[in-house]
Amino acid sequence: MDKTQELSGSHAGGPLDHSPIDASSVNDILMAGDKSKGGRPYFLESAETERIMNVAMAVATEVAVLRERLDTLERLLESKGLIDRAAIEAYEPDEASAQERQLWHARYAARILRIFQQELDAIARPENNTPMHRIADEINEM
After folding, report:
1. Given CB 3.0 to 4.6 Å as the disulfide criterion, which of 7, 31, 44, 55 pairs with 49?
2. pLDDT one-digit tens code per residue, 23-76
3. What distance in Å separates the CA atoms of residue 43 and residue 129, rounded to the nearest whole number?
4. Alpha-carbon distances, residue 9 vs 16, 31, 54, 115 (angstroms)
5. In whole angstroms, what separates CA 46 from the centre of its chain?
6. What distance in Å separates the CA atoms of residue 59 and residue 111, rounded to the nearest whole number?
7. What percent of the chain clears pLDDT 70, i.e. is strictly above it?
8. Where are the domains of the chain?
9. Rounded to an integer, what distance in angstroms lies between the CA atom of residue 117 and that of residue 107?
10. pLDDT at 15
11. Where do runs of H (alpha helix) occur along the chain?
């Protein structure tokens, strides 16, 4: 496979190949928009409410994981006497660190806005919007 090709289930342009891949060719930003087949089920009073709730829950999950990791790091550093909180507050990233952070921000935005990307894909590819009950019926008929 060409190392410059970006891989994602819905963006690769063909059937999935099960041979080993070079992990550097996987575009996780594009993959964040991938969705399973079938229409999205909605459980709240409206699709709009459900979208907002999904985005809010994605952000809440990210914040909770981030907070736990940050707490772990700060406690470990402080317990070893390696750094104090003032040094953390005063930190300014170099150019390479700033670029790495920008890439993280792009991935983060792709994850939390995934529902909107999937909705746009559903509009662009209506043939992929089979309701879940129809997919279940097709499986049962196999």
Report:
1. 44
2. 677 776 666 666 666 666 667 778 888 888 888 888 899 899 999 999 999 899
3. 17
4. 7, 7, 22, 16
5. 23
6. 9
7. 73
8. 1-39, 44-99
9. 13
10. 56
11. 28-31, 47-79, 85-90, 95-112, 114-124, 132-140
